[in-house]
Structures are given as C-alpha cells and as structure tokens.
Amino acid sequence: MLKILAWAGLIAVATIMFFQNRSFKKVNTTGYGVVSLELAKKTKGETILRAWHDADSNLPVKANKMIKTDFFFLLFYSWVLFLLSNSLIYHEKSLLLNTLLRMNLLLAPLAGLLDITENILMLYNINHYSQHYISSSLFAWLKFILAGWVVLVCLVS
Length: 157
Hints:
This protein has helices spanning 2-27, 34-39, 42-55, 58-89, 95-127, 137-156. 83% of the residues lie in helices and 0% in strands. By secondary structure, the chain is mainly α. Helix 4 runs antiparallel to helix 5 (95-127).
C-alpha cells in the first residue's frame, strides 16, 4: 500500500510540475528555466533573476510556485527511491550490491535533504534577489549525483 501511495504521489506531483513548467516556458522569454537557477553560481544566478524580473514580474512568482511544488516532489522521489532500494535488498544475492542498496537507504533521504536546502536557497534568492545571492549549485549537483547513484545501483541490482 505504501509503495502505491508513494508512486501515485510521485506521478501526480510530476504531472503538476510538468504543467507548471510548460506554463512557465510560455511566458519566459529569457531562456533561463528554474533548473538554470538551480545550477547557477553567484554571477549567473544574479543574471537569471535580473532577467526574470526585467522580462516579466510574474516569472519570479511562477518560479516560486514551481519550487514550492518541488518540496512535494522531493518527498515522493526520495520515498520511492528508499522503498525501491529497501525492496531490492531482500532479493539481491551479491554482497556488494546488497551493501550498496543498504547505503541507498541513507543516500535517498540525503538527496531529499539536499534538495530541501537547495529549494530554500532558491526561494530566498527569488524573494531577496536584489540583496545577497547565495548559490544553490553545490547542493543541486550533490543531490543529482546522489539521486543518480541511487538509481544506478537500483538498476544494476
């Protein structure tokens, strides 16, 4: 039952994010998406936010909503990766892969925590863009690396 709930939540939130992103792209003439901000260092991030504010004052508001939706997405993707790794542990005969799957039980929630940190920083930057910019790129890259690793281990096992 938990697996069904986790997958249903992941699919539902991913669908919402798909339509939010499509709506964002329709009005965004800057060429910079939320992922661009996510991975941007200080100078590039400030450029993106300035471009959004100059192009359309609604862009930062839409980005803000997308990032808030991402809080639900990260909850579900880290939960699905955790549940998937946990269920694969019981079927994996290789000691190495079984150990890596057990490590995933820590890495999946850690990726979620990194995503939370990244989202908080992006929300701060959007809401205080003319003040001190704090890059979220380190947290974003670490999150992508950890989540990618967890998926890779699940696929190989």
